Amino acid sequence: MKIRNIYKIGLVLVAMLFNSCEEALQEEVFSFIAPENFYNTATDAEAALVGVYAGFRLIHMYDRHYMIGDMGSDDTFTGEFRGNQDRIQIDEFTVDPNNGIFRERFENSYITINRANAVITRVPAIEMNTELRDNIVNQARFLRALLYFDLVQLFGDVPLKIEETLNVSDVASPRVDFNRIYDEVIIPDLQAAENLPATPRLEGQANRTAAKSLLARVYLARAGNNPSSPFWALGRDKANEVISSGQHRLLNDFRDVFQIENQNSDEHVFSIQFSAFQGLNNTFQEFFMPRGINSTTGNGNGVNEPTPDIVQAFEPGDDRFNTAFLLELPLAGGGSNFYDPRGSCEGFPTPCIARPYIGKYLETSPPRGSLNYPILRYSDVLLMYAEAANEAEGGPSSTAYAAINQVRSRAGLPDLAPGLGQAQFRDAVRQERRVELAFEGIRRYDLVRWGILLDVTREHFSRFYPNLLGNVREHHVLFPIPQREIDLNPGISLSDQNPGY
C-alpha cells in the first residue's frame, strides 16, 4: 500500500474520531477532547496530527476557501445558480456578520487550531522517538501558523489561542492585535517548522520547503505596500532558500500540474489532500461545472464562474488559458459541448456555449474528487522571489528576471522585455501572479496586501457590473467578525466588531 493511501486511511479514522466533536460544534465554540485517554503513545500522536490535517479538508472544501479568495475579487462571480445568499454577499461586496460561509470558516479554523494546540502541548510529554516527536510538533506548528495567517488576513484582529481549550469556562477570548499574532505565533511557528526534514515523512505532509515558502508569503504580506519595509528582503531571501534547495521544479506542461497522476509532484510545495478512493473527495468539479449539462463527468452547479475580467487578463498565446478554462465537456449520450471563454464561439465546433467556466480542476475519469487543493506551488515561490527582489533592491535584478521568465517560458510566452523600471516590473509580476495562480484562492489576498483591493474592485465593477459599484466601501478590506462568535464568546462584544459592520 502506498504511503499516501496509508495517510489518507488515517484521515478517515481520525475523521471518525473527531466526528462527534464537529457535530457538537454546531452549537459550541471549541472542540473539547478528554486528554486522559489520549496522547499516551506515538500512535496517538500521529493520529492527533492527522486530525489537524483533516480540519483543513473541511475548511478548503465546505468553507469554500476559493469562494473567498476568488469570488471576493475580480476573478470569479457567484455564477448562474444564485440561490445562496452567502455567496451572493461575497460576490457583491455586501457581506454581513451573519454570513454562513464566514461563520463556518471562523469556527472550523478555531476547531483545527485547538487540535494543533493539543498536539503542540501534549506530544512532547509522550515517551517516543524524539525525531518523530519533533516532526509531529513542528508540523502542527506549521498548520497552526497557516490557520492564523488566513484568519488575520480575513478579519484583522482575532482571538489568540495557543493553549488547548478543555472546557467551556475557557472560551472567553478577546480580539488580539494582528501584529502580535504575527510576532508571537505565525512567524515563530514557521521558523520552528523550518526544522522539518527536506522530504515529507508521509506524502502530503508539510516539510522544510513548505515552511520556508509560507514564511516568504507571510513576509510579503507583512511588507504590504510599504516600499521601504525590511520584510521585502526577508521574503526575497526566504524564497531564494526554497529555490536554492533544489527540491522543486516546474513541471514541463502547465496542464500536468492539475492531473491526478502528478499530485504531490516536485512543483507542489504543499497541498490539501483529497482522495475519492478513500471517501475523502473534494467538490470542486461539482461546483465549477456548468449547470444542467448531462456530461460524462456528472452534473455541475454553475457556481464560482470566471469573470470577463480574468478571461481578458490572459495574453494571446498563453498556454495556461486552455487549462484554466473549460473548453470541452464530453456528454453522457455521446459527443461534447464546447465552451469559448472569450465569448464568440468563432472557430469552435458546435454546440458551443460562449461562456467561461473553470477547467483547472476537471477530472475526466471516475471516481472524481481526488485532485488536491494547492496552497503553495513552486511557480508561486518564483513569483514571490521576483516581486520581493524588485522591491528590496529598488528594481529588477537579473535573478528576478530569471524567476518570472521561468514561469512565462513554461506558459509559452516570451521573456519580459529587458530594462523595465521598478514600477513596470512590479506590474508585470502582479499580472503574472494573477494568471498563473488563477482560481487557486489567492487573488483577493494579493490585492489586499498590495493595498489595491478597493480600487481594483471599483474598476472591475464599473466595467462589468456598474450596478454594484456603490457597494464597495472602505471597510471591505476586512470581513466582519461572525455574529455567532460575538454571541458566544464573552471576550468579544458588539463594540469590538470591525468598523462598518
Topology:
Layout lengths: L2 H22 L17 H20 L3 H7 L4 E2 L7 H8 L7 H23 L7 H26 L2 E2 L15 E2 L1 H16 L14 H16 L7 H15 L22 E5 L11 H5 L16 E2 L1 H6 L7 H4 L3 E3 L5 E4 L12 E2 L19 E5 H15 L5 H13 L11 H15 L6 H7 L3 H12 L18 H6 L13
Parallel strand pairs: 7-8
Antiparallel strand pairs: 1-5, 2-3, 4-9, 6-7
Helix pairs in contact: 1-2, 2-5, 2-6, 5-6, 6-7, 7-8, 8-9, 8-13, 9-13, 13-14, 13-15
Number of strands: 9
Alpha plus pi helix count: 18
Helix coverage percent: 40-55%
Question: What does the average pLDDT come to?
Answer: 90
Gross morphology is: globular
Question: How do the helices and strands follow one another from N- to C-terminus?
Answer: HHHEHHHEEHHHEHEHHEEEEHHHHHH
The value of Rg in angstroms is 22 Å
> The biggest beta sheet, please?
3 strands, mixed
Arrangement of strands in the largest sheet: 6-7-8
**CATH hierarchy, class of the domain at 1-187 and 479-501:** Mainly Alpha
List segments where confidence is low: pLDDT < 50 over at least 5 consecutive residues: 1-33
Measured between the Cα atoms of the first and last residue, the distance is: 52 Å
In the CATH scheme, what's the topology name of the domain at 1-187 and 479-501? Serine Threonine Protein Phosphatase 5, Tetratricopeptide repeat
By oligomeric state, this entry counts as single chain
Give the class from helix and strand content and strand pairing.
Answer: mainly alpha
Q: What portion of the residues fall into strands of 2 or more residues?
A: 5-15%
Proper CATH architecture of the domain at 1-187 and 479-501: Alpha Horseshoe
